[in-house]
Specification:
Shape: elongated
Radius of gyration: 20 Å
Number of helices: 9
Strand content: under 5%
Length: about 180
């Protein structure tokens, strides 16, 4: 009861600040983070959505929104956010000329790719997984991504693809990739 009252007091106080400054993204982030930590995912998602309406290109907010989906095991929305984040990283990668920045974006992307592959497989989004794996193999031709240490090896990516083809009923394609 004391905790519930304290929780209500804090949420009311943060909501009052947000209402006083509805265009201040920092206050909306604070509200979203509060709800995320309080395991109120729906309210956190609403606050993150408002943050994104104020700044639709903030990958940091997408990553926090992603965490809420991961926490609730919402693989469908997790995949949607991951796809959007991957597209944003790809666009930023194409725009930048700085080699160090490109490396940072690749490192960030590798972490997202691992989560994305796992989410696609778990949620049985085999077409999306195949597309993603092919994209990774293509990217690997330009920059070593599939090193088997910090990310999956090329062989592991091929096994994921074989698993997807098998689950889709294409046994021959699956066998061709697995060998």
């Amino acid at each position: 009861n004391i905790l519930t009252n304290r929780h209500t007091e804090i949420s009311d106080a943060i909501e009052a600040i947000v209402c006083s400054h509805p265009l201040n993204i920092s206050y909306w982030e604070m509200l979203a983070e509060f709800y995320l930590r309080a395991n109120e995912s729906n309210k956190a998602q609403e606050a993150f959505d408002y943050c994104l309406s104020l700044n639709p290109l903030d990958i940091r907010i997408y990553s926090r929104k992603l965490e809420a989906y991961v926490n609730t095991m919402d693989k469908e929305n997790e995949c949607k956010i991951l796809r959007k984040m991957m597209k944003m990283l790809e666009d930023k990668y194409k725009e930048t000329q700085q080699i160090e920045r490109k490396k940072e974006l690749i490192d960030m992307g590798v972490e997202l790719l691992r989560l994305f592959i796992d989410s696609c497989l778990i949620s049985k989004r085999f077409d999306e997984c195949l597309e993603l794996c092919q994209m990774i193999l293509n990217m690997n031709n330009h920059h070593t991504i599939c090193d088997g240490i910090t990310f999956y090896s090329k062989g592991e990516i091929m096994i994921f693809m074989a698993e997807c083809w098998l689950k889709k009923g294409f046994v021959k394609k699956s066998l061709d990739l697995a060998m």
